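Researcher: Please generate the 3D structure of the following complex. Treat every line as part of one assembly.
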Amino acid sequence: MALKAYLRERFFPHLWCPGCGHGTVLNGLLQAIEKMGLSRNEIVMVSGIGCSSRITGYVDFHTLHTIHGRALAFATGVKMARPELNLIVPMGDGDALAIGGNHFIHAARRNIDITAIVMNNRIYGMTGGQFSPLSGEDVRATTAPYLTIDPGFDVVELSKAAGATFVARTTTFHIKQMADIIQQAILHEGFSVVEIFSQCPTYFGRKNKAGDAVDMIAYYKENTTPIGSKAKKENPNLIERGIFVQNEKPEYCNQYEQLVQKAMKGR
Amino acid sequence: MVFSGSGGQGVITAAIILAEAAVLYDGLNAIQSQSYGAEARGGATRSDIIISDTTIHYPKVIQPNVLVCLTQAAYNKFYSIIRPGGLLISDSRYVQTEKKVDAQQKEIALYETVLEKIGKPIVFNICMLGAVSAIVEVVSPESIMKALENRIPADFLDMNRKALDIGIELGEATVR
Amino acid sequence: MSENIKFVQGNEACAEAALYAGLNFYAGYPITPSSEITEFLASRLPQIGAKFMQMEDEISSLCAIIGASLTGCKVMTATSGPGFSLMQEALGYAIMAEIPCVIVNVQRGGPSTGLPTHGSQGDVNQARWGTHGDHAIIALTASNHQDIFALTVEAFNLAEIYRTPVILLLDEVVAHMRERLVVPQPGEMPLVERLKTSVKEGVDYHPYLPREDGRLPMSDFGEVHRYNVTGLFHDMWGFPSSEPRAVHGLLRHLVDKIENRVNQLARYKEYYIEDAKHLLVSYGSSARSARHIVEKRRSRGERLGLLELQTLWPFPDEIVREKCAAAQSVIVVEQNMGQVLQSVKLAVDKPDKVFLANRIDGVFIMPADILKILRLIQGKGV
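Model: Done. Output below.
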């Protein structure tokens, strides 16, 4: 199936700014899905609120555009009701880890088979450039005119600690790796987290003198390195990318099926 | 009726069994309710039971015809609500009936007899139920036993039956 | 048949009714005084292969059942005031996206944590206006276990017919007390199943294009029609739209589908209304005290009547006006500071003849509380 077949062309052009990384994430995601040959009817994409969440409008799957921070909770309901469906939940910084942080850790704890894609642009774009829990310290934002004092979350460490059984990180520069990781994340049986650095030149870039989209993507190239690389040993400041965790653990819907067997026997 | 005691004594369970027996096996109407505190155990617990052969609308008991008090705290808290001329049943070991109450007071050695003849205070509440059913005669002991069979694991049924019988004897002794 | 008679709490009557109505996905978070519903279903749903989830909070509980409803499940959650407050945003979403679901609020004293183990009817207006923006809602209530059963089934049916969340407002008193419940035989009460689209694969399906009768056939997630669901104003494909005609049309549709059917949706009971000089208007557990008074006084020949409301929203204005027309005075009996009182005053021709008999101290409203007001109205003093 051609990539285009996965798009709802009727609803283009999309609303993302020129240079935004989210279109690249959409590209990587569709490449992964095409490679796996998944049918559009077996995919449910659930999103919350923000720039990232608008991705659901453009793809020809079953799409559920919900409320801020709760996408994983809606997705949990869909998955539990129809475990055979593939659930993909693209989220922004706020959806995943500010307002939605509680659902994020609980979805990870249950190890329910959902693929969470955290499109990390370190800023709230849709509302006009406020800082997020992924901004980290010393970032300029409309709500941080004196720079942020809030430390940021490390999405990978948080996901690991919460019990996610697949945890990976990549960037919009590394499209091949992105598609490959997303594919593995969808295939993984359990809660998968893929953090993708996705540039926001409009707000984060302009406010923090990070340059235009090209400069920001180049930054991802220069400041990230494969997990355990020699470069990381030489320069500990580099951010690692790749697959950090890939564990086999009982998946929630399967566990529930077993519980049903037990309950039916005890009847 | 109001059953009162301390949380964990099983007064609520006893109330449920009595009311359930009335509804399921004696064809009567009954309502059982309870007042809750935040604590799961301890405190003065109260459970209301209304049994009638007509429809019951108001679900709470304002002035009970029958008040059962299994602890001093429960007695102190509730003795004053009894309907004038009503029946107040208390456990003779736990409750000192000091107050002047316009009611027929029956102090029964429920706890001591249960401990002496069964050795386990866990069926104290069922013994109380036996005494109440013998004195008040609203719900038949057979129906109470059927309700017990629904709610109590089979292994404990004999002990409960014994406790109920002891209660009936103690109750009958007070009306003879 | 004797095996269909049960002696249960109101919460269990509600949960039994949900199973009768075909509930097959429940998500909830424990909260007093509704927890028995969640506990009962935790035990029963797995036995029939249906889904039960204890979620991390009330927000996710409502979100999860909305997701499940989109796959074709009959869904419910149960909570109390604090949890119901948390659910308000997702409730608005279910209204906007037209998702059938049932939300039980077993009311307790509020605001805030309030009185967890005492009854109240303080969430009536929250049920109507708790979520933001113009909207319409269906809210039902009941005063005894048989009616709780009937109205729970009704709630599921109305949710399907109108593709909307339906709120069931119970309260601590009926929810916790035990009384007789006769569980109807299968087939004895009509059940409304999900209206599914007849549009074939490959043909354009419009999830938000109402049929002539106003109903919107659905297509389950995972089936052949792929569409978008959003809490934004949207067009007939479910795609976000801020086009004024689309916005106006959708809001009118959301409100009219319910408000234009007030009389059809009205469920109520009446006792001795025809010649009632003093008419009590009540609902939920308070209606039990009201009924108690009415029966007692009628036996003495006093002309008291009772209108027991079971549909609180949309408020049955016309019916209330009609029933109250002949009465000299109307006394609204409720456990709050006059939430239904306001609606009754708006509905009747002479608002000055409407009085309130209430209690707001967590104590269940006693017959004496109502009699006191009645005596005052009759000029007899306290």
